[in-house]
Design brief:
5 helices, 139 residues, mainly alpha
Length: 139
C-alpha cells in the first residue's frame, strides 16, 4: 500500500505541476473553448495555473516524506474533490461543458476516494522502522 500511495502521490504532483505550467504558458489556449474569452479570463487562468503548480509541489512534498503523511494526503485529495464538486455545480448552473471537462470531473470525483483509502491504510499499517531509526541514531 505504501508503494502505491507513494507512486500515485508522485504522479499527482508531477501532473499538477505540468498542467499548471501549461496554463501559465498558454493562458486561454490551454482551456478548450476559452480561446476567445478575453484578457480577464486569460489573466485568471494563468494565475490559477500558478496556484496549480503550487498544489502539485505540495503533492510532491508529501511524496518525499517517510512515511507519507496521511493527513496531508487527505487534505490534498479533499481539495481535489472540491474541484470536482465545483464542476458539478457549474454543470447544474450552466449545463454540460466541453467533453474534456467532463472527463476531468470524473477524475476529480473518482480519484480522491482512492487517495483516502490508501492514506487510511498507510496510517493503520504497522511501522517496522525500528532498525532504520536505530541505524540513523548511530550515524
Amino acid at each position: 500500500m505504501a508503494r502505491a500511495l507513494r507512486v500515485l502521490t508522485q504522479l499527482m504532483g508531477w501532473a499538477c505541476v505540468a498542467i499548471g505550467l501549461f496554463h501559465v504558458a498558454l493562458g486561454n489556449a490551454a482551456i478548450p473553448g476559452a480561446g476567445s474569452a478575453g484578457a480577464t479570463v486569460d489573466s485568471w487562468g494563468r494565475f490559477m495555473g500558478a496556484c496549480f503548480v503550487g498544489y502539485g509541489l505540495a503533492w510532491l512534498w508529501a511524496a518525499r516524506q517517510r512515511p507519507i503523511p496521511a493527513r496531508a494526503v487527505r487534505w490534498l485529495a479533499g481539495v481535489f474533490l472540491l474541484g470536482g464538486v465545483g464542476r458539478l455545480l457549474s454543470l447544474a448552473v450552466h449545463g454540460w461543458p466541453q467533453w474534456f471537462q467532463i472527463a476531468l470531473a470524473v477524475i476529480e470525483l473518482g480519484l480522491p476516494p482512492v487517495f483516502f483509502w490508501l492514506a487510511n491504510a498507510e496510517e493503520r499499517a504497522p511501522r517496522g522502522d525500528w532498525p532504520t531509526r536505530a541505524w540513523n541514531a548511530r550515524s
